[in-house]
Write a structure and sequence with these properties.
By secondary structure, the chain is α/β, with parallel strands linked by helices. It is built from 21 helices and eight strands.
């Protein structure tokens, strides 16, 4: 199922609840999702009268329903066409078959410059990224950001994209991981849904190209060749390129020299590990986002007793806040010690994705092979969806990583499962109790 189909499917129940049954049966059920462009979902209908009515009189309710679906898609457009094939044909005729706007990875709207906590360890990269976002193609091109896992590289990359989306909406901005670039190139070579011509148009007909985890170009000869030509064409046209990596260009193994020199031709900036003050500031901001006031001394204790990985730092705070709500206790240093099962001389091992998967399997008496496999019966699907929810709720890991851990599922499937369980536990007492029981088991590990 395509991403736009999943988003529309999760939106329909809210529309069924908020619009009249006549309007729902007459208009909504006849709308067919066919695409996503920026923050808009594109819907097809066969009648111009229908399209005008929905675009006008039903706009407020549909936009509201889209927002409640939990995706980054908050707007829509209705076009006149019979089906997806007709829409794609029209798109090719009208726009020169430009695939780039609606094929990028989804942006996390929370990853902005405003939500990025600036400290001594990342001040340089923050200002460099802000300069690029304010003047793409003029400031530093390319901008190459590198640093360890969990230090905010993806946050700053998406902050650039979100800034441009808000302040320069006419620009064509494409964010993708290096893995997606590789996979789509391979798909185009096999003459799948994307042809080689489509692939090149997608990645070269952009104003700003943002590629995450470029170190994965290592050892991929044909991908490096394609990326080299894409990079060259964009930079020669003064189009902005921003890259992230877990290491500097000279340390990426088996990277062609011509790429290495081009990566080093702009500005190279490293994201350093955050110092204690920055870690405390990050915890304070995240606790405010979760509407939970935590004493500065408690935040200091968590920061002092955590490693420098921001993801695991935030994960610990989330665990403490949940533990506090679970036991209806104030967040003190003693509670933090109990929640994290730490003493002065020992530290509990960090919670892992497999811990959650195994715990859910044991709780629901299903095998791990079934849970991450292809079976779609309810006895397997619900625990699988609960896994998606728990991993997203209790850990700070990318949606793509969650999907990979659960049998290589698409991130849109993870979004759908996470949001579905999140809504169900609001009304389903039995499910809420079960999930809390699983969380208690995990906290005791």
């Amino acid at each position: 199922m395509e991403r736009y189909e999943i988003i529309w499917k999760t939106t329909l129940p809210e529309l069924e609840r908020t619009v009249s049954s006549i309007s729902y049966d007459m208009y909504i059920v006849h709308l067919v999702p066919v695409d996503i462009i920026g923050d808009k979902i594109v819907l097809c209908t066969e009648s111009r009268i229908f399209a005008d009515h929905v675009n006008g009189k039903m706009r407020e309710k549909i936009c509201s329903a889209l927002e409640k679906s939990g995706s980054e898609v908050t707007d829509f457009s209705v076009v006149v066409c019979k089906d997806k094939e007709e829409y794609e044909k029209k798109l090719e005729e009208d726009n020169g078959n430009d695939f780039s706007r609606h094929s990028a990875s989804p942006l996390n709207p929370k990853f902005t410059f405003e939500s990025f906590v600036v400290g001594a360890s990342n001040e340089f990269i923050y200002h460099a990224a802000k300069a690029v976002a304010d003047n793409p193609g003029d400031a530093y091109n390319p901008l190459f950001i590198y640093g360890g896992t969990g230090l905010g590289k993806t946050h700053i990359l998406m902050a650039i994209a979100n800034h441009l989306k808000l302040h320069k909406p006419s620009l064509n901005v494409l964010y993708a991981t290096c893995e997606q670039f590789t996979n789509q190139m391979v798909e185009s070579l096999s003459r799948g849904r994307l042809t080689p011509e489509d692939f090149r148009r997608k990645f070269r007909n952009v104003d700003v190209l943002l590629i995450d985890d470029v170190q994965f170009l290592s050892k991929k000869q044909s991908t490096q060749t394609e990326f080299f030509h894409t990079f060259n064409e964009l930079v020669m046209q003064n189009k902005q390129v921003v890259l992230t990596s877990d290491r500097p260009p000279e340390e990426i193994e088996l990277l062609e020299d011509r790429l290495r020199t081009r990566f080093a031709g702009g500005l190279i900036a490293d994201v350093q590990t955050p110092d204690l003050e920055t870690r405390i500031a990050i915890l304070r901001k995240k606790s405010e986002e979760q509407k939970c006031l935590v004493d500065i001394k408690v935040l200091g204790y968590i920061a002092e007793n955590s490693n420098t990985d921001i993801r695991s730092l935030i994960g610990k705070l989330t665990k403490v806040i949940f533990f506090s709500k679970l036991h209806e206790s104030a967040i003190t240093i003693d509670l933090v010690k109990e929640a994290l099962k730490e003493s002065a001389g020992e530290r509990q091992e960090e919670l892992k994705v497999d811990d959650i998967i195994n715990c859910v399997c044991n709780f629901y008496k299903v095998s791990k092979s079934d849970l991450i496999g292809k079976k779609k019966n309810k006895e397997i699907v619900e625990p699988r969806q609960i896994c998606c929810y728990l991993i997203a709720d209790m850990m700070s890991v990318p949606l793509v990583t969650i999907g990979k851990s659960l049998g290589g599922r698409d991130y849109t499937t993870v979004i759908y499962a996470r949001d579905k369980i999140s809504e169900l536990i609001k009304t389903n007492d039995k499910l809420r109790v079960e999930i809390n029981d699983i969380k208690k088991m995990l906290l005791k590990q």
